[in-house]
Amino acid sequence: MTVRKMEALAFDPLAWLDQQDNVQRTATSLQPTVCQPLSPSEELALATAVTRELIARNANIAESYDDYVRLGFALANGLGSDGHDLYHQLCAHSTKYRQTDCERKWQECLRQADGRTSIATFYHMARQAGIDISAIAKQYRKNHFNY
């Protein structure tokens, strides 16, 4: 290589630092933001609104036994005993629904709730059924907090 060609390839530390600063800013802007957790009453209100939407669409998110159990643990872990009515309302859309069996499973979920299945599982199941959780949450905030 000639000296002239090497000059074109010379290292410029200021350009490198500027480039690294841009990379750092981009990486920082891509980091996820942390949302404030909902209070228990807000969580119940959101879960109730999502349940209403599922019922309005006649969506059955607990047809299989696995989904039935996952839903029970998600509501029991996320809402405690406040999730009782929502669980029955959602399970009632199954052709297999029996009130006494559902109640027995709900009580079992409450007793064995260990936090491994969170309320996020319920929201995921609702999303899979076509529910836009963020739109419901925005409407809730608008109605209750005027923003």
Written account of the structure:
- The protein has helices spanning 3-8, 13-29, 40-56, 65-79, 84-91, 99-112, 119-128, 133-145.
- It is an all-alpha fold and 147 residues long.
- It has one domain.
- Helix 4 packs across helix 6 (99-112).
- The termini are far apart.
- Mean pLDDT is 83; it is low at 26-34.
Q: Which helices and strands appear, and what pairs or packs with what?
A:
Blueprint (H helix, E strand, L loop, with lengths): L2 H6 L4 H17 L10 H17 L8 H15 L4 H8 L7 H14 L6 H10 L4 H13 L2
Keywords for this entry:
single chain; 147 residues
Gyration radius over CA: 25 Å
Q: What is the rounded distance between the termini?
A: 64 Å
Percent range for β-strand residues:
under 5%
Helix count?
8
The run of helices and strands is HHHHHHHH
Main sheet overview: none
Mean pLDDT: 83
Integer tally of domains: 1
- Level of helix content? 55-70%
Counting copies of identical and different chains, the oligomeric state is: single chain
**Care to count the β-strands?**
0
Give the overall silhouette. globular
Q: Residue ranges: pLDDT <50 for 5 or more in a row?
A: 26-34
Structural class: mainly alpha
